[in-house]
Agmatinase (Ataeniobius toweri), 289 residues
Amino acid sequence: MDPETRDPGTYHSPSRILGSIIYRNSIRFGPRQIRVESAMLRAYNSGTRAAPYESLVVADIGDVNVNVYDLKDTCKRIREAYRKILATGCIPLTMGGDHTIAYPILQAVAEKHGPVGLVHVDAHADTSDVVLGEKIGHGTPFRRCVEEGLLDCQRVVQIGLRGSGYSADSYEWSREQGFRVVPVEECWFKSLTPLMSEVRAQMGSGPVYLSFDIDALDPGFAPGTGTPEIAGLTPIQGVEIIRGCRGLNLVGCDLVEVSPPYDPTGNTALTGANLLFEMLCVLPKMKYY
Ligand SMILES: [Mn+2]
């Protein structure tokens, strides 16, 4: 970053550098790589006996044409694209892209459904007010969503949060809004199936959006991401969370922050593709054999 343009008030410690979008990039190549790795996916879910392609009309409708020179215009383009998608009655499963995209998607989702519940799986709360002086970014989407009344805050859960922060209690703001915060320490060494039965009770029958940041998983499993944090969730726990969303009134899901250049094995994108398949397999009207 050009020292001339940096804001000294928001850029004074190594952790601020590490937490910002200037650390790692190439998240824009995530969807392309997830599509490549999704060639491995078959039609049925052997674990749950779900038959998504017998249950729903499923299509890859391609990318939203974003403006890489202008994040605000990008958000506008995403919001308008999702308005049209949602107007068809489609339940969008989105591949990211960085977590910024959850904000304009949720704007369109809330316009249709009203304030929604949120199952947010992530290493980070993504509730910063500003990052490097900017209101729009991948560290701020859920703060913006709350400000605009897009979330039903009593029906928000954040799972897997961890890592160094900007203050001793990084999740205080979340709790003040009424979110349930499940730091990763509460997830270590255990099945998350019991947690998810509590989450289903919290979400009730209202509309729910599922936002899954691949960095929720341990970087040993998913190193190809922008802001890795050690001691994360296992892929098994990720699957338990998604399967635990079965029965919820899901109105949209995303899988974000896959950065292919940081994982030359392709395994992060493969994991992302499988998690998206698991999401598909818990959508309303799913047929299970
Ligand atoms: Mn995130």
